[in-house]
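Thread: zinc ion complex, take 2
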Amino acid sequence: MVECRGCGSRDLAPVVGTETFAYCRRCLLVQRRAKSSSGRVAASALGALDRLLDRNRLGPGRLVVGVDAAPLLAQAADQGFDVLAIEQDREEAGKARAAGLPVVEAHFGPELARALAASGRRADLLLVPAFGRIADPAGAAEALASILSPDGSAEIAFASAAEIVPQGAWAAARNETILPTLFVLGALLEGEGLHLNDAARAGRHHLLRASISTERRCTGRLAGLLEEERRVGAHSARFYSGGVPDIAGARRSSAEEAAGIRT
Ligand SMILES: [Zn+2]
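Output below.
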């Protein structure tokens, strides 16, 4: 890899504690140095389908599109939703077809999204449970913008560099291609006219879930997580190069303060 997957810059530097990942000095996206191997996708990262449908106030007949999310789509199809599976891996595409899902086997990028949009199909709900395995996040952001219906929303999950780097939790990143922070993701989406609306910890494996749409709104818990990223230093290159001497301490005091605010 010579160019940043997020912004195309060639100014990449090592991330402290790992030889597998580099960070971009321009946009701060943490990313795998070499091409990643594909692994099984944890569709459960987004949580229960019912919750996702409720949150987005979707009833039967709307289109739910999933990127490497066949198990969730199978449930959605059972509940009367139109579904479309975008599968990036041949083997997984075969399994999705065998399960009776309509499948497009393609890389989730701008070309595919334009083709789908031109066909008149736009997603009311787009599920990307393994956003961290996407090799071209800039292309994915462009794809999100062209595939979402005007009032549609995307639900994604990914392992965050703001969680992985200070804890040295590299085992949790073994299947990831990129480790965005909410800050980096927000900037990437902003360029495509999209906004982060909500985010929450998924409770394990340093995963975050985030909701995205064209609307400019921000829940309290998203604001809290963004503030936490800022406080631990994840907005600065020093955070990734080991220049922040006591990240763990900063994180602890941040958590303690947050706990103090709640009580
Ligand atoms: Zn970059």
